[in-house]
Amino acid sequence: MGQVLVVVESPAKARTIKKYLGEGYSVKASIGHVRDLPKNELGIDIESGFKPKYINLRGKGKVIQELRKEMRKSTNVLLATDMDREGEAIAWHLKAILGNSGSDVKRIIFNEITKNALREAVSNPMDIDTNKVEAQQARRILDRLVGYLVSPVLWKIFFRGLSAGRVQSVGLRLICDREEEIRNFVPMEYWTIEGALANVRGSELPVRLFKIDGKKAELDNEGEANETLSAVKAGSPVVTDIRTKQKKRNPQPPFITSTLQREASNRLGFSAKRTMVIAQQLYEGIVLGSEGSVGLISYMRTDSTRVSDEAYQHGINYIEDNFGKDVAFGGKRGFRKTKLSQDAHEAIRPTDCSLTPDKLKQHLDKGQHSLYELIWKRFLASLAAPAIYEVTEVDISSGERYLLRANGRKLVKPGFLTIFPDKKSEIDTEIPSLSKGETLSIRSMEAIQHFTDPPARFSEASLIKELENKGIGRPSTYANILSIIQARDYVTKKKGVFYPTELGEIVWKTLYQLFRDIFEVDFTARMEGELDKVEGAEQNWEDVVRYFYEPLMVDLKNVEGKGKDLKKLVQEETDQTCEKCGSKLIKKWSRNGPFLACSKFPDCRYTRSLEEEEELDRKCPSCGGRLRYKNGRFGKFIACWNYPQCKYTEAITIGVPCPVDGCGGQVTEKRTRRGKIFYGCSNYPDCEYASWDKPTTIICPSCSKGYLVEKTTKAKGKFLKCPSCKHEEHV
Asked: Largest Cα–Cα distance in the chain?
């Protein structure tokens, strides 16, 4: 019997699977997608039912050749790509490329890369799920229609290179709409009465005014607050009721994709993209010394909190053996599903609970260890008993009209918090010993002014939650949505929250004005539901694409031939005048940002960058004139305001000294003739230091020979690397 060829997407996954399958199996990687729509054309035959034109991806020739060679030596081919829609589509494309050489081509799926899971999958090969493939194909075609038909409209209005995405544009909309809410927010004033009472033994009790005349205390102004404060102080506080009860706090379910991204953002400060990159590494396998490559977590793209009976029992046994039987929950807990959950895969969990974070620490980098620990603790905690608190409420009357309240809480049984403690479990407030009818003394009491807060700007975690709640995108798309809107400079992140850039806001307003139908939140959510129906064989993929395409064509026809009028939508007249002809200057947009241009263009071609208005707080060392920022062919630089009489210029440094010994220069950001950014020394040509990667001021902790540089790759995300010894650190 000949060998069996197993095809996966990545070399890391191939290594792990080969270890478990052993002899008789050849495991090869396709290195991701092998076919896609062409880049230089729409690639969709709209008249023929939106038929896509697929081509082999550039650079994949050797990979395809190697796979075909291995296939000729094999009796069977098993396509073991990921178990989501995209993985199914990759398998379908692989089958089409490999052709028919007599080998039987089948599909296998598994939720985790373990020996048992792979044996089960290999024993039960299946046909490719064409419904999943068609759902993914429909999504790809929809995104291509927007990208290739709507983006050129933005080019006519702004500049070439901008993009409009079907789903990410709605993500941008959420951020822009929130910013508009914040701008329009009018804070409302309110007051509270708070203080401390004491019993006869001197033990203090923090209290707050709760009710006035039996109704919730609502104080809208200072006068009302001070009047109430005086009345409360004049009263004699008496304990009227003490209520003590036990309250359960249940653990959260094991992670799904969105909750993993949110929690990794909140607890670890990871971007959604970095979270998914690391999770993919943990799923595909990490080399654990002599054991070789081991898959550490189950599949990480899922919307289900379901856990297999086998994984559940392993988890319960581990809790009982390591934390005690009283910590384990007595029975299998059910968790509420989201209304859009497909429940196709298990939750994200460790493949083996006995592989604790401490055991794996020496084999994982910092980011991998932190994320694995989060997944490991969350899974075990979800199987544990609830935490039990003793909650106490004390009502205190002050006169006939005013009711004060004190609240206390004490943890009496930690339950799941033994495994996964958090900040909520640390906040305990004990109530001193009191008795009903006891009179208390006032230690302090004051009226405190407050103002209502505007809605919070979105963080990565809260934006993912909003996308999920509104049904926009699916687990595999959230990280991509967030990455694209940042990469396009539509939003910027400051202190962990998103702010729309000026470009982002004006692009969104333009899209909404011209393509309102297809970028409505409800319409986008309905499209996601329709794609789910395609996967469930309830809907034809061509009908779904047509449902989207028809309103898109209506909007496109409305903007056809209106290039000049469209440009005027974003051009803003200023009160400044042209230095050449005296006409009004208008604000326009280019790849380098907004600029001012003469309203008499093309008769007058005067332009000026808005950034050139920004002056520096120092003088020109050549003539003593003012210095300002300017934009040139190779990027931004500093020049004298008296140009052309004074031609002094200097580069803008990034605050990092040149790493060449004895140079004394500073590293500056520069551009090649084709606009690609690189970093060079300000003392050029005397110093020829140059780097494609941005240097930092961090000395390499491994070799101490020089600075670490910033690097970003698809596989690892953003990290630091030493150019000398190749030491790497995640950021």
From this structure: 96
Domain that holds residue 147: 140-185+456-565
Map residue 238 onto helix, strand or coil: strand
Strand-strand pairing, 104-107 and 74-79: parallel
Residue 31 and residue 148 in one domain: no
Given 543, 565, 587, the domain boundary residue is 565
pLDDT winner (highest mean) among 452-456, 616-620, 653-657: 452-456
Per-residue confidence (pLDDT) for residue 101, from 0 to 100: 58
The DSSP secondary structure of 298-365, one letter per residue, reads: --S--------HHHHHHHHHHHHHHT-TTTB-SSPPP-PPPTT----SPPB-BS-TTS-HHHHGGGS-
Residues 513, 518, 522, 524, Cα dihedral to 10°: -130
User: What pLDDT digit, counting tens, does each position of 124-145 carry?
Assistant: 999 999 999 999 999 999 999 9
In this structure, are residues 604 and 627 in contact, taking their beta carbons and an 8 Å threshold?
no
**Is there a domain that residue 668 lies in?**
no
531: left (phi over 0), alpha (psi -120 to 50) or beta: alpha
User: Which residues have CB under 8 Å from 61's CB, separation 6+?
Assistant: none
Contact 454, 181 (CB under 8 A): yes
Task: Indicate whether this model's pTM tops 0.85.
Answer: no
CA dihedral sign of residues 305, 311, 316, 321: negative
Q: Any bridge partners for residue 577, and if so which?
A: 584
Using DSSP's 3-state secondary structure scheme, residue 13 falls into helix
Which residue in 20, 299, 318, 389 is the catalytic one? 299
Q: Where are the beta strands (DSSP E) in 14-93?
A: 25-29, 35-36, 44-45, 51-52, 55-56, 74-79
Distance CA 9, CA 283 (A): 13
Q: Are residues 110 and 212 in the same domain?
A: no
Assign 3-class secondary structure to 276-296: HHHHHHHHHCEECHHHCEECC
Strands 717-721 and 584-590 come out as unpaired
Cβ atoms 261, 479 nearer than 8 A: yes
**Residue 69 is encoded by which pair of tokens?**
């060679």
Q: How far apart (Å, rounded) are the C-alpha atoms in residues 446 and 443? A: 11
- Do 305 and 346 belong to one domain? yes
Reply yes or no on whether 689 is catalytic. Answer: no
The residues that bridge with 590 in the sheet, in sequence order, are 593
**What are phi and psi for residue 102, nearest 5 degrees?**
95, -15
Beta carbons of 89 and 137 less than 8 angstroms apart: yes
Task: Say how far apart CA 226 and CA 565 lie, in whole Å.
Answer: 60
Q: What is the pLDDT of residues 508-528, one digit of tens each?
A: 999 999 998 899 999 999 998
Q: Do residues 221 and 366 make contact, with C-beta atoms less than 8 angstroms apart?
A: no
Question: Mapping DSSP to helix (H, G, I), strand (E, B) and coil, where does residue 675 land?
Answer: coil
Q: Which residues of 580-616 are buried (b: 16+ CB within 10 A; e: fewer)?
A: eeeeebbebbeeebbbbbbbbeeeeeeebbeebeeee
Rounded-to-integer distance, Cα 673 and Cα 634, Å: 7
